[in-house]
Amino acid sequence: MARTDSTGSTPDFDLDGQAAPLLEIDDLRVHFKTDHGVVKAVDGVSWHVDEGETLAIVGESGSGKSVSAMSILGLVPTPPATFPSGDIRLRGRSILKMPEKQQRKLRGQEIAMIFQDPLTALNPVFKVGDQIAEMIRTHQDVTKTVARRRVLDLLGEVGIPNPGVRINQYPHEFSGGMRQRAMIAMALANDPKVLLADEPTTALDVTIQAQIMALLEKLRQERNTAIVLITHDLGLVASHADRINVMYAGRIVEAGSCDDVFYRPQHAYTFGLLSSLARMDKQRQDRLLPIKGVPPSLSKVPPGCPFHPRCQFATQGCVEAVPTLETVVTDETMNGGLHRAACIHSDQVEIAYSERLAP
Amino acid sequence: MTTPPQSGREPDTHVPAEALMTRFEAPEPGAADATDTTGKGKKASGQLRDIWRRYKRNKLAVVGLVVVAFLMILAILQPWITPYDPMEQNLLNTRKPPSDGHWFGTDVLGRDMFSAIIYGVRLAMIVGWSVMFLSLIVGLALGAVAGFRGGALDSLIMRVTDIVLAFPALIGAILVVQIFGNGIWQVVIALAILSWPTAARLMRGSTLSLRESEYVEAARSIGASDTRIVTRHILPNAIAPTLIYSFSHIGVAVVAMASLAFLGIGVPPDIPEWGTMIANAVPSLNVEGESHMWVFPSLAIVVTTLAFAFVADGLRDSIDPKLR
Amino acid sequence: MAKFITRRLAHAVLVIIAATFLIYLGLFVLGDPFASSGEKTVPPEIQEALREKFGMNQPFFMQYLTYLQNMFTFDFGIDFEQRRDVGDMLAAAVPATARLAVIAILIEIVIGLTAGVIAAVSQYTFRDVFITIITTLGIGIPVFVIGIGLRAGLSGEWIFPAVPRSFTVETPWWQEIILPAFTLAILDAAFIARLMRGSMLEVLRADYVRTARAKGLSERKVIGKHAFRNSVIPVVTYTGVSLGVLLGGALITETIFEYQGLGFLLVRAIQQHNNPVIVPIVVFAVLTFVVLSTLVDILYAYLDPRIRLH
Ligand SMILES: Nc1ncnc2c1ncn2[C@@H]1O[C@H](COP(=O)(O)OP(=O)(O)OP(=O)(O)O)[C@@H](O)[C@H]1O
Ligand SMILES: [Mg+2]
């Protein structure tokens, strides 16, 4: 196994801007100034997503997944947040540098988001139908009746029975799963190019989870929407994502195709995540190995590799310098440029994992 | 009438009270081990230090605290501070503007305004703190019983609070004073009668939510008695909103007494009380050279109520930093 | 919803019955309301007439019923002082008080909401700090100090009529009302501003406000529609209760400005032990207060659909 240095910029598109990715985040940093110091919620994150593609972002609670997604829509409150560096580009155009008014046009129109907690994401004092219609009428010059008809379609589309009744109800009259569907209907209302789905199924029971994921899948196929799927649930990722970003303590520690990350993890944290997962595709279950310890406080990230205090592979080298995200070159894979990891013990990790995988 | 006593009802309108209550609903996770009293004690002192650290950041609250302390000292030392007997009349020397002999001038009856105002401090402190303690004790006790016992007793206590709270505060106070007659202690009783229901409701609310909480369950499971559960586990955790309310009520009680006195109700007219002094000055309101008669007592009451309000604000913010 | 309203109304009726009973007990039973006291001597024939009217010669329960009946048929008897019909006195005072209350409420809503919203959306800026200081003063300074200050400083100047009134000059009602209305409005405006600021700040942190932003709505719509509609609910509650208090008579303010409303009447009646005037005003004040509180609860349920169900 060899590794090559990468320049840090994403190498899989032409720098002349011809093939600029649909949505691209570049070295984004989001820091919160709090009473207990600076919380580095997102600390130098880059990724991109293209049409019809599903990018998964996984990581433990508090690793900065939601914050990185919300900064795309300008939803991170400043203060307390600051943006020390970074750029967000839609089709090569910087969103952060756009005037506020243009940014607003993108929100809900080009980029829509399904929020983590459907129970509180809808306004309790307005009817669900009106809230969805508002999304439409903010961006399209249509009459109330047209919007209403569209809302009815949408509600049906996301599998809400009885749309004619539901459209006039208030959020508290919806169950959690129904609210999540309503949120999805709202997000889809303007046929966005990018859909940021922040744990769209966490609050739901398994059957509804499957339905919702099927819905997103259908959307991606029919409308070629790019989906950014944020989740803790590796099972969900395995069956739905094309590529995976693993986040830890505000940074991406490993990125690559689903196959690469699942079968040849290069980062000790990914290794830990996968080892703690029960696998359906294996006859004999290995002993599940939970990751020991708790995620670090983002205001006091350990020096060097932030994962080292919890890492079974850690050595002195891990404490001394922050490992950079570097391209992994392996024999098995052709798309070497896509698989990157920030771990100085990636060789050991891969060997350890293949031993676990072996029957 | 819109008087400050009415604003003292604020925790009783929907949202503030609920907000106040829910904020204390979730007990600290560490408090779950009900038997470990030493750990809890340490935790409590750590909490106190935290509260004080946050309190200090609010400069107005610190100023308020200093002023309150100063007022308390004045109140205690009043007999030795006042240059004149605050009751002593001198009909040959009435309505005199401030001078070397009478720093704040003299009033309609020739009494020394400075001495009268310092006496007023004493009166205000006595009344304010008495009302607070009375309503706090009654409110805590009845609120805890209502919340913990539930059932018929709870309904009874709550209906009583409903009825008391059906009276606009000043009207209610007037009614009680009408029944009990004039006098400072009658006023104290009247104000306490009107303020305990809110304290009781706050206390009941937090008791209710704590009753079902894990660590009370834990205490119950190891066989702690009801009394012990209430005094050891519920009171210390549920008391905060009620305490804050009662403390903020000191200023309200001071203003309420002054309001009654200003209207000539309850407070005997010969006692030097700020509201009475202002009422006595009403005929002089537009008279040149007699403004000292209403300006000084007004200042005294404003300084007092503001100081208590600042302290109350500071307490609320430092005990619950979220609501800033 | 209907069930909620019914229950709330039943509750209000019970509270009113209990409160009127207390008033009756306090003022009638615990002392002879018609006895001469202090310097005030009540003419025997009036004492007798009143005892008759209020059924004081009858058994206790009958007395109470008579009292209720008199209250609800607006038959209040004759006042001790000028031997006028108390009903007529009230008929003159109620509209004056109502006008004052409504105008004061309007002023405080406009000022309070504006200040509260501005403070909340510009949290931690100079504007917020400034508004917070002003509201703290407004809440901390007692009403009668504000009133006395306004009367000392402004009455008799410019458009503000002098107090005490000169009866030779006719003053239009709006001139008479302006100072008392502001006196009343200052405290409540400050209170509303603070309430609004607090609840707006809380609502601004809510997830659904974030959702509204994510829709691409303008900040104006986010604040003015989504945030405002939720955060104004406690203000509506407070204002309603406040109106309920004011409608019963603004005792202090009316007294300071000698404004001829219920409060002024009540204070004078108390000073003169004029019970036939005291009783109906106190009952009326309790009544308006309870009724308005009840209405506010119902309105609250209407404004917050989550409450409506139970
Ligand atoms: N407004 C804020 N002020 C201060 N810190 C914040 C704020 N918003 C988020 N954070 C912090 O940023 C960090 C990252 O939060 P984020 O919500 O992105 O985590 P997450 O990966 O989405 O976790 P989860 O899986 O629990 O949703 C957390 O430590 C959080 O405390
Ligand atoms: Mg999240």
UniProtKB/TrEMBL annotation, chain A:
<comment type="similarity">
    <text>Belongs to the ABC transporter superfamily.</text>
</comment>
<dbReference type="InterPro" id="IPR013563">
    <property type="entry name" value="Oligopep_ABC_C"/>
</dbReference>
<feature type="domain" description="ABC transporter">
    <location>
        <begin position="23"/>
        <end position="274"/>
    </location>
</feature>
<protein>
    <submittedName>
        <fullName>ABC transporter ATP-binding protein</fullName>
    </submittedName>
</protein>
<dbReference type="InterPro" id="IPR003593">
    <property type="entry name" value="AAA+_ATPase"/>
</dbReference>
<keyword id="KW-0472">Membrane</keyword>
<dbReference type="Pfam" id="PF08352">
    <property type="entry name" value="oligo_HPY"/>
</dbReference>
<keyword id="KW-1003">Cell membrane</keyword>
<dbReference type="Pfam" id="PF00005">
    <property type="entry name" value="ABC_tran"/>
</dbReference>
<dbReference type="InterPro" id="IPR027417">
    <property type="entry name" value="P-loop_NTPase"/>
</dbReference>
<keyword id="KW-0547">Nucleotide-binding</keyword>
<dbReference type="GO" id="GO:0005524">
    <property type="term" value="F:ATP binding"/>
</dbReference>
<dbReference type="InterPro" id="IPR003439">
    <property type="entry name" value="ABC_transporter-like_ATP-bd"/>
</dbReference>
<dbReference type="InterPro" id="IPR050388">
    <property type="entry name" value="ABC_Ni/Peptide_Import"/>
</dbReference>
<dbReference type="InterPro" id="IPR017871">
    <property type="entry name" value="ABC_transporter-like_CS"/>
</dbReference>
<keyword id="KW-0067">ATP-binding</keyword>
<keyword id="KW-0813">Transport</keyword>
UniProtKB/TrEMBL annotation, chain C:
<keyword id="KW-1003">Cell membrane</keyword>
<dbReference type="InterPro" id="IPR035906">
    <property type="entry name" value="MetI-like_sf"/>
</dbReference>
<keyword id="KW-0813">Transport</keyword>
<feature type="transmembrane region" description="Helical">
    <location>
        <begin position="277"/>
        <end position="303"/>
    </location>
</feature>
<keyword id="KW-1133">Transmembrane helix</keyword>
<dbReference type="InterPro" id="IPR000515">
    <property type="entry name" value="MetI-like"/>
</dbReference>
<dbReference type="InterPro" id="IPR045621">
    <property type="entry name" value="BPD_transp_1_N"/>
</dbReference>
<feature type="transmembrane region" description="Helical">
    <location>
        <begin position="173"/>
        <end position="195"/>
    </location>
</feature>
<keyword id="KW-0812">Transmembrane</keyword>
<keyword id="KW-0472">Membrane</keyword>
<feature type="domain" description="ABC transmembrane type-1">
    <location>
        <begin position="94"/>
        <end position="300"/>
    </location>
</feature>
<comment type="similarity">
    <text>Belongs to the binding-protein-dependent transport system permease family.</text>
</comment>
<feature type="transmembrane region" description="Helical">
    <location>
        <begin position="100"/>
        <end position="122"/>
    </location>
</feature>
<protein>
    <submittedName>
        <fullName>ABC transporter permease</fullName>
    </submittedName>
</protein>
<feature type="transmembrane region" description="Helical">
    <location>
        <begin position="12"/>
        <end position="31"/>
    </location>
</feature>
<feature type="transmembrane region" description="Helical">
    <location>
        <begin position="129"/>
        <end position="153"/>
    </location>
</feature>
<feature type="transmembrane region" description="Helical">
    <location>
        <begin position="235"/>
        <end position="257"/>
    </location>
</feature>
<dbReference type="Pfam" id="PF00528">
    <property type="entry name" value="BPD_transp_1"/>
</dbReference>
<dbReference type="Pfam" id="PF19300">
    <property type="entry name" value="BPD_transp_1_N"/>
</dbReference>
